[in-house]
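Example noted here:
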Amino acid sequence: MKKLGMLLALLLVLTMGTAAAQDAGEITLVPINDSGYGISTLVPEGWTQAALGVYARASEPGDSTLLAQQAAPIDAAQTMTALLPQLGLTEAPESIGTQETAALNWTLYKIDVPSDAFPVTIDLAMSESEGKTYVILLAAPTAEYETLHEAIFLPVLAAFAPLTLETDTSAIKPYTEEAVTFPNGEITLAGTLSLPESEGLHPAVVLISGSGPQDRDESLAPVAGIKPFALIADALTRAGIAVLRYDDRGVGESTGDFASATSADFMTDAAAAIDYLRGRADINLDQIGVLGHSEGGLIAAMLGANNPNVAFIVSMAGTAVTGREILVLQTELISRANGTPEEQIIDQVRLLQDLTDAVTADELENAEEIIYQAAVEQIAVLPEAQRASIGDVETYARNLAQQQLAQYTSPWFSFFLTYDPAEDWAKTTVPVLAVFGALDMQVPDEQNAPPFEAAMQAAGNTDYTVVILPDANHLMQAAVTGGSNEYATLEQEFTADFLPTVTAWILERVDAQAAS
């Protein structure tokens, strides 16, 4: 599960020291194609790729100069809202104008981050096109701003363009893909239906995404370049199984408001997808299943307990305990993997437990005070230069507490903290495959597999399977440690056993004719 609100990881280390100014003549821009974001652009030669779409100059220790070029499957307003905390802002800045390039129309911003020690100036450009918002950001020491604005930002702005994929006749898919839309009340969901070319009624699978705003491919940039749902749809359709994947509400080409929705609302979107398939003449009405990843797994549990039209379920790193339990163990495992001292881990876990206790008890003033005190303590141990750059500690810590509390009390997070999917798993009697990664630190198998099995037994379910892939992380990549910090560095594909396991299990329970 992705942390709520972390849509664009721009790594804005705005309180760090800055390097000496460089001569603009030393800057050479080289063209790249970024398949993770589907963009063609320029980046400075010799800069270090700090994350997908993020390049840091790092010419000397403490240099905070960076260039970020990314895309989000949401509109510009939602993207700006996600950026504000990373920019150190509480409200959207005023635009300084617009600029039309050969590919896109941009809205421009210039943001000054004042500091007596290390002032920073940010160039920001945003453009909406075909359900995505494209972002270009250059963070530069104010003393170098004019130089880097001319040498980097303006040329990148002119060159930036969405990738156009040309048809490769040597890689034509042995199935058809159809753009579809279907309603859920006043919401219209848009997606892609992959159909085998074989004749007859097709079994079908609806793909349900994990947390955070996801497009139909479950594109995970900047966390990773892998597109899990595109890979799953390809494998299953080649095996003779139709697959429907769709943009989350408020994402890409789908309408609706993502931010105000809970997992229960997303369950109704998945149910609408099932209803759509049931209305088609080429789908076997008795063989429609769902595959849910992460949060999509708990949504699958809701469907299994309440929707009689679900024929089978695949839970991919899905949960079987409350969100609060997930967050506590997740924090402990990730902190330990990152080398955090044990005493700090104990403090972090206790803080999270106290905070979530206060939120679930609706003691919001107490919850805000917990965050505020933690922020003050963390600021107190920062180097003097960083403390000075923050300015008034009281104001900074209070604003931070209010922003984080708003996340913890959002409709989605409030539901996530207390909902127990084990209760719905215990009412699910259709066939279920639960796949976990032994290296998954976000939905650990040791925490979730036992309660899942107990729930299946309580349901009297006689056809369930638990598979734990020994080398898999939360994205089902072949991992080294399982930590989220390595997602982008691994092969951007599934571990070898994942797709064969899922495909074979489904084929044992449906009638399908594989592509020739």
The chain has three domains: 24-161, 176-321+421-507, 324-416. The chain has 14 helices and 18 strands. Residues 24-161 form a domain with the Protein Transport Mog1p; Chain A fold (CATH 3.40.1000.10).
